[in-house]
C-alpha cells in the first residue's frame, strides 16, 4: 500500500513550527518532513516558540518538552489559554517516555505524542493526520 | 527514808504557802471547783478524769492559768503516785522530767513565769523524796542557772531556798548558811513583787540555827525573824527558837512563857513534830536539874535538837551527860554523813552507769549515723550518677536519633536523585539515539530523496552522536567504576597547554550557536609535569561541556596559570552563561544534581570532576568570588602529586584500567 502522504496533495500551504533546544533534532525533523514542502519554521526554546506563534499562527506545532527556560508543558498551557491559539494542533516530540509524562501531555491539551527516537513513518502519518484534522476544521 | 518524807512535807508545805498566798488561784470561776476536785483526787482513782474535765473547761473558757493548772495537777498526781518509799526507776524519773517540761513549755507559751519555776519545785521534790540528792541538786542548779541567765530574781530566790532546805536536811549548816545569805541578799536587793511577798522569817530562823547556840548572831537573827514575821506560823517558829535560846541563856521565865505559848498552839507539829519531847528534855535539865530524865526516844534523827540538848546540859553543868550526848551526836553525824555519802556515791554510780550506757548508745548511734550518712552520700552519688548517665544517654540518643534522621533524609534524597538519574539517563541516551536512528532512517530512504552531500552530512551526524553516546556511556561506566573502586590514576608526563587545547577541541562540538570558546594560556612556554593527562583532560572537558550547556550567548574561556596557586597548575573555565548561586556552589558537585532539570545532562559531569580531583590530590570548585556574568570553575592540579602505588592503593586489582 502506498503511504497516504505519497498521494498527490499540496502540503505547501501548511505552516509547521518545530520547537527543540537541540539543533540537530530540528534538522532531523526538517529533513524527515522535507518532501511535504511545508512552510517550515523552527524555534530553539519555549520563548522563541511563543514569539513565532505570535508572529504567525502555525497549523501544526512539533514541540519538544525538555527545554531550558519555558519548557514544552508551559508552552502548551499558554497556547491553550489564549483563545487565538487555543485550537492550534500540537504534537509532542519528546525523549520523556514515562506514562505519566504522556498522560500529562494529553491532559494539557496536546493532540498527539511521539517518543524519541523518532520513527519516521510514525511521524509522517501523525503529521498528515493532524493536518487532515486541520483541513476538516477549516472546511466547517 | 523517813527523813526525806519529812523534808517532802516541808517542801509541800512551802508550796502550799505559795499557793495560799496567790489564793484564790485567779482562775475562771467555772474552773475553780474542777481544780479543787482534781486536787482532792491527787494520787487516787478518778484523778485523770477530773483533771481532763478541768482542761476541757479551761479550754472552753480560754483560761490560760487554768490550763497550766492542768499540767501542775498532772505532775503532782504523778509524783504522789510514785510515792516516797520505793526508789524510783529511771523511767519514772524521765516521766517526771517530761511532765515538768510539759508544764514549763506551757508556762512559757502562756507567759506564766511562776509556773515555770514551780515545775522545778515539784520535780526536785520528787527526786529528793527518792533520796536522789545529786539529781535534786542538779535540777536546782539548772533552775538557778536558768534564773541567772534570765536575771529572774524569783527563780534565783526559789533555787536558793531549795538549796537551804536540802543542806538543812543533811545537817550541813555551813553550806546551808551560804545559801540562806544568798536568799536573803536576793530578797533584800530585789524589787520583784513575787519575791517580796515571800516570808523570810523562817530563813532568819534557819540562819540563827546555823550558829552555835551561844553565838551572838543567834539572838540577832531571831530578833530579825521576829521583826519580819508576818504570819502566825512565822511567829510560832520564832517563839520555838526563842524558847530554846532562853533555856540556854538560863532565862527561865522567858523560856516557860514561850514554851507554854508553843505547846498551846495546835499548829506546833507542823513546824516541829518533836517539839514536845524537846521541851520535856529541856525541862529535865533547866527546871528539874535531873539529867537522868533525858529521853531521846523519837528524837534520834533530830540531830540539831539533840546537839542543842547537849549544849544546854553543858551550860547547866551536866558535863558527863553533855559529853555522852555530843558523842552520840558525833557518832550519829558520822553515821548519817556516811549514809548520805553512801547514797550519793550510789546515785552517782548509777548516773555514771547511765552515762556510760548512754555513751555506748550514742557511740552506737554515731556508728549508725555515720553509716546512714555514708549510705546517703553513696545514694546521692548513685542518684547523681544515674541522673548524669540518663542525661548523657538521652543526649546521645537524641544525637543518634538526629544522625539517623539525617542519614534517612540523605538516603531519601539519594534515592530521589537516583530516580531522577534514571529518568535523565533515559532522556540523555534517547537524544543521541534519536539522531542516530533518525538520520539512519533518512539514509535508508529510496534514492532521490537526498543528494550525496546531504547523505554525507547525515552520516557525520550519526557518527558524532554515536561518539556522544559512547562518551555518555563512558561517564556512566566511570561513575560505576569509581563506585566499585576499579578506577586508577596512572601518572605520566603531561604538558599543561597541550592538555587544555585537547580539551577545547573535544568540547567544541557542544557549543551552542553564536558562542565562542577559546583557550588563554598564561604562558605559551610548554610546562611539563607529572600527572594523569587523560584525567585532567576529562575534567576540563566536563567543565567545558557543562559551560556549553548553560551558555547560550557570549563566550567560554579556558585559562591556565602556573602562578596563581604555587605548586599547582591552575585551570579555570569562565563562561557568560546562567551562572550558579553561591548557595549551590557545593551542591552542584553532588552526583545526579542538576540545577535545571530541563537542561540536558546526566548530572554526572561535575561529580566525576570532583571524584577525579580527589583521587589526584587536586581541587575543583566553583569560584564564588567571581562577580561577572556567568560562572567560573577552578581546577587546581598538583605539580608534584603523591603517586598512588599499587601496593598501597585502595584497589590492587587493576584489570579495568
Structural class of chain A: alpha/beta
User: Kindly state the mean pLDDT of chain B as a whole number?
Assistant: 81
Record field, number of beta strands of chain A: 5
In DSSP terms, counting alpha (H) and pi (I) runs of 4 or more, how many helices of chain A? 5
Q: How would a crystallographer describe the biggest sheet of chain A?
A: 5 strands, parallel
CATH architecture descriptor name of the largest domain in chain B: Alpha Horseshoe
Radius of gyration of chain B (CA) equals 62 Å
CATH architecture field of chain A: 3-Layer(aba) Sandwich
Rg for CA atoms of chain A: 14 Å
Q: Tally the helices of chain B: what do you get?
A: 22
For the record, give the distance between the C-alpha atoms at the N and C termini of chain A, rounded to a whole number.
30 Å
* CATH homologous superfamily assignment of chain A: Response regulator
The global form of chain A is globular
Question: Biggest sheet of chain A, strands in spatial order?
Answer: 2-1-3-4-5
- Count of domain modules of chain A: 1
Instruction: Indicate the multimeric state.
Output: heterodimer
User: CATH topology of chain A, anyone?
Assistant: Rossmann fold
